[in-house]
Structures are given as structure tokens and as C-alpha cells.
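Page 42, continued from yesterday. The earlier attempt failed because a stray header line got pasted into the input along with the sequence. Redoing it now with the clean sequence only.
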Amino acid sequence: MFLGEYQHTLDAKGRVSLPRKFREEIGSRLVVSKGLENCLYVYPAEGYREFLENLLSASDFDRNSRAVRRHFTAGASEVEIDSAGRVSLTPALREFAQLKKDVVVAGVADHLEIWDAAEWAAYETANASTIEDAAEELSRSGLL
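This time it went through. C-alpha cells are written below.
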């Protein structure tokens, strides 16, 4: 399980170091894809396969299903962690997430998210005042 948030720096070649704690659990092969809210999702290869199975269970004849499937697969990249613990992010993925220099690597239970540090701070600030309402709504619907 991936938990916590860590500040890192994107190097000149578009690589980011993953925290040792995450590297030990994620394995050497992983998939980086576009996420939601302008971040990147990072899954262990097997975890991404499970994620895709859920996406593939929806009908090809449903417009929303096709759009979501394309979002998470078309720009995805299978990568390996190098000997220094870094993963290389494609220019298209870096552009999608608006990654500049400072990034946050956040553990989100079954996967990681990579955010531009300023975008992460803005997200945290914007959601701080509504998280209790969101939790209450999910609880009422039986999801929490």
C-alpha cells in the first residue's frame, strides 16, 4: 500500500526519483499514465493490468467508456526504475501534468500520483474546506 507524500525534483532529462519506501513495494516495472486533475498515475505493471480490466469491462459502444479508456491508455508509458531509483517521464506526460521542476509524489493506496508541487499545494488548499462534506456524502451513500 502506498501512503504519504514526498517532495522531489524533476531532473533535466525528465526523470523523477521515487521514494525508497515506494520503490521497495512497486517493483521494477511500472506504468505511468495520465491521471485526473492534471496529475500522473503510476501503477506497478500488474496493478495497471487490473486497472485496465475495469476499464475494459465497459462497452465499446458507450462514448464515455471509450473516452475514459483512451485517456488512461493512449499516452501511457511502461517504464523501469533505473539504478538510481528514478523513472523517466515522457515529454507528453510531463506536459499533461504541467510538471516543471518541483514535484510531489503522493501515495494513494494502490498507486502513486505525481503532481507539480505548486498544483498539489493549490489542490490541497482548495479541498481542505470541503473534505469533511465529501466524506459525509460518501458515508451517506454507503461508500465509507
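Notes: The first helix runs from residue 20 to 26.
Reminder to self: strip header lines before submitting.
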